Every structure is written in C-alpha cells, then in structure tokens.
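hey can u check if this looks right to u? its 326 residues, i copy pasted from the old doc so theres a chance i mangled smth
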Amino acid sequence: RWQREFAAELLQRITPPVPTAPAVCVLDTGAQQAHPLLSIALSETDTLSINAEWGTADHAGHGTEMAGLSLYGPLAEVLVSNQPLVLVHRLESVKVLPPGDGANDPRNFGRLTQQAAYRAEIQNPRRNRAFCLAITADGRDEGLPTLWSSAIDQLTSGELDNVRRLVVASVGNCRTLRDNGYQYPATNRQNAGVQDPGQSWNAIAVGAVTDRVTVQSPEWQGWQPIADAPGALSPASTTSLTWQEKKWPLKPDVVFEGGNWVRDAQGNVDCCDDVSLLTTRRSDLGSLFTTTGDTSAAAAQVARMAAIVSSRYPALWPETVRGLII
C-alpha cells in the first residue's frame, strides 16, 4: 500500500513529457507500459517487439527496471523530494529477447539489434532518441570486433543508410562475483573483461562505480560493502585491462553509479537494498518498486543523460551528444 501512496504522490508532482520530446529506447525484455510511473512517458504505440509472437510485455522484469532508471534515474531521491518534476524526455521499448526459455542465435545478435532500432524509427521517424542496450554476451573476444559490435558500429555511423544514431551499451558484469575465488578489485581487473558488444568503437560503453558504501539495515548486520570507498569501482563492473590488442579503444568510455555488493565474515557475497538503486518493478509481481544495479543500471542512467541533453539541444548530432557525455 505504501508503495502506491508514494507513486501517487510523485505523479501529482510530475509534468509529463510532450509527445515530440526525445526518448530513451530500451532494447531489452520488454517493459510494463501500464506501470503508473512509466505510462505517463511510454505510450502503448511505443511499446514494440522484434517478433510479434513474443508480445511486448516484460517477461523477466529487467526491461521495466531499466525503463524506470532511464526515465527518472534512481527513484529513492525522487520519491523523498517534494519538488515538482518536469520530464523532458520519453520512453520507448523494443523487446529483443524471447520469453520463456527461448534464446536468440548469437550469430543474429547484431542483425536483431539493428532490426529493433529500425522498429522504433519507423514508429516515430522524427524523434531524437538514445538506444539503451543493457544486454551482453561473453567477453572472449578481448576487444576485437565481432558481428554484434560491428553491427552496432554500422548502426551508429549510418554506414548502411546514412542515419547516425546514439547507442549506450553496458560493458557487462563480472560473472564470478559470487564465487569463492573472487577478489576485489583484482578479479575485475584481471579476469573480468568487457563483454560483447561493449567493444564497439562508436557506442558509449558504460561501466559502473559506486558511492553507496553504507549498510544500515539491521537484517544485514555483519555484512560489509565490497567497495568501501566512495567513487570506487563497482564490484560488478568489467574492465578492458586484460585486452591484449592495445590498439583497440579502451573501454568503458564512461562510468556511472551501479551500486555495490556486500560480503560477510565468511566471504559470502550478496546484493543488498542499502547499496542498490531503487527503480520501477513489474507491478504484477506484487509491488511497484524494486532495487537493481550493476552496469545495466549505469547504462540506463547514461542513456537518460543523453536524452536530457537532446531535449536541451535538439539540433545536436548524435556523435556530438556522445562527445559531450564522454
């Protein structure tokens, strides 16, 4: 009940974005358009899918979480404020991952990403947008181009159609964070390379840092934040320090708040609300809010920044917005 009261109070303070405002286009698991904090900026016609049989609803929750961060940033700060909030950008959602246990063929990741971008552009051909891609594959390529990263470079540069675009991509998360052998920050620097397609030359590749270094909740007594100093590398973030080909671009291009993780005296690692980011949740799961983090959350916030810049300076080229952010 209290969550709905918080949401209702926030809605009273919000001025919705105009239909012509720029957008963050979230390429993910879909989004719950009916969420009260999303529907004011995400219309049903802007909730799309690359496969009509999949529908557009969020089947996993991740897309709705990214949509909330792309629109508001971390919601805790917004909810406790009493100030009016004028939204200057909108949301779009294109479902690029199949529901259930299905999976896309890795050889088609690039083509499907391009197809998702085209779907959004066909729907609103005159709208400025930043694409948010918080999905990654393994990082075995060590910075070398892949079909996926090359497709994104085609998409951003306009090689195929002379239309330039801004893509914000996460660099992926450390997959061994919960393993016994994980060592912070050595594992992130030595064994957790940026994942595909974060090596794209033209995309804004986003890593994660954190200022969230305080654990206060009684139920987490005895747990300590892994990153213990504000501004430190988020325990989840990958890096490009292990790439052998030094001629390739260093990634990430920028870092943003991605939350922290906690560890107890026995070395167990877990996520904790105190050091995570509040965002929107699929309300059919029982509540309106949830916490999230890592490089996906960081990328969503950078995409939000890009859309805000475009709202203030609508004539800027996508590569100029990219340059300003970096």
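The chain has a mean pLDDT of 95.
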